[in-house]
């Protein structure tokens, strides 16, 4: 099993990342990326610790690896996968969306369904299984970018002004393809080993050049990462910004300036139908998004915990109105937890023997996420009141003897001296109000696609035939004479 130190050494390469008009020289040391790199390193150390019980040997490949890098082949495997994903999620309290198990889960399902990649003359099926075995052996951390850049959503890439704005094939060579263009929005890419690049948005037959999928090292020549403003450097301390200072994953627009991709790293080549097969026929989408819901459930529990503790600290937790708000938050959190378990309970083996989490439960929970997360935040925001702003500007005020006495006297609660109270309310602010919090709000609403896309998954996977049939049977049971 890979250690955190091995991971940190591996990401110290020639990757081309731009922030604030400058090229980042050493990603593991840069103020914007060091904190999240350290957190990911911790995840690898957690997994490598036998106490976490995240290690197993894949019976198909014989490789000893992290449980999250193997497709579940029984109900027990599903439970073990959930345990492993939850162990990682608990380490970050759900605030790291793209830990290595997310894209890992997609590749687990890809490799279990090589037939979905078998098209044309080239053996992409062999590519995907070989790549997955490498992922198992090396515990690879992949980020992904599977959405075209937001140029126009009225048309697809072939109709955009300028050639190859969305990443596509610029040239085919004997030994691979050269890709050019951009793709959004690779969370964690700056500190990943490699990036999976593909397109999940539906394409037309005119978009064949963009219908590709491949894995590329972050340090590949010609690949540039344009990161949104990082929040970690502005975090004055872990005390002031406990979440920003640890979990700012960063998000990047990828630009491919004629990047060579050898054939063995290509999984879909100019095949519009192949992209849909890759994501949906393999079960990758439902397995990867089950992982996302396992993580989301952990995060909601944490938010519920902050809310309850804030209410206790302010002495309002027994007021009926507050109990009602906490009760609503508890309901939201437990709905997601229940969907995670329901997906496991309703899982079934597919033709390849992979146990797929029940899609009705996974997509049902996802379909509500764009309302559920903002609602959870609204309740926490409501309960904290002005307490999140009635805090000293930074930990420096706590250390200044001129101000400390006032802070101790006026910013405390019966159950919490000033230092504890301020610590809690600064955590609450980092969850609801900081720039990091705002990004998380956007993340939970959009990470799996815009709400209309995600509700489309819920619509298609609910199985309306049963309910409609029931209504029709009921209607058939009476007529005008009744
Ligand atoms: C913080 C963050 C991190 C992310 N991380 C990743 C990542 O790691 N990898 C990755 O691949 N993706 C990631 N995503 C998701 C992805 O990049 C997109 O944000 C997502 O797919 C939605 O697409 P969009 O942002 O272009 O929004 P759009 O799809 O353009 O939607 C914007 C608005 O337009 C409306 N709209 C657009 N088209 C239609 C239509 N046809 N019908 C009705 N309404 C429409 C939507 O309802 C929405 O209100 C991330 C997103 C965020 C916000």
TrEMBL record:
<dbReference type="Pfam" id="PF11794">
    <property type="entry name" value="HpaB_N"/>
</dbReference>
<dbReference type="InterPro" id="IPR024719">
    <property type="entry name" value="HpaB/PvcC/4-BUDH_C"/>
</dbReference>
<dbReference type="Pfam" id="PF03241">
    <property type="entry name" value="HpaB"/>
</dbReference>
<dbReference type="InterPro" id="IPR009100">
    <property type="entry name" value="AcylCoA_DH/oxidase_NM_dom_sf"/>
</dbReference>
<dbReference type="InterPro" id="IPR036250">
    <property type="entry name" value="AcylCo_DH-like_C"/>
</dbReference>
<dbReference type="InterPro" id="IPR024674">
    <property type="entry name" value="HpaB/PvcC/4-BUDH_N"/>
</dbReference>
<keyword id="KW-0560">Oxidoreductase</keyword>
<feature type="domain" description="HpaB/PvcC/4-BUDH N-terminal">
    <location>
        <begin position="3"/>
        <end position="268"/>
    </location>
</feature>
<keyword id="KW-0285">Flavoprotein</keyword>
<keyword id="KW-0274">FAD</keyword>
<feature type="domain" description="HpaB/PvcC/4-BUDH C-terminal">
    <location>
        <begin position="276"/>
        <end position="475"/>
    </location>
</feature>
<protein>
    <submittedName>
        <fullName>4-hydroxyphenylacetate 3-hydroxylase</fullName>
    </submittedName>
</protein>
<dbReference type="InterPro" id="IPR004925">
    <property type="entry name" value="HpaB/PvcC/4-BUDH"/>
</dbReference>
<dbReference type="InterPro" id="IPR046373">
    <property type="entry name" value="Acyl-CoA_Oxase/DH_mid-dom_sf"/>
</dbReference>
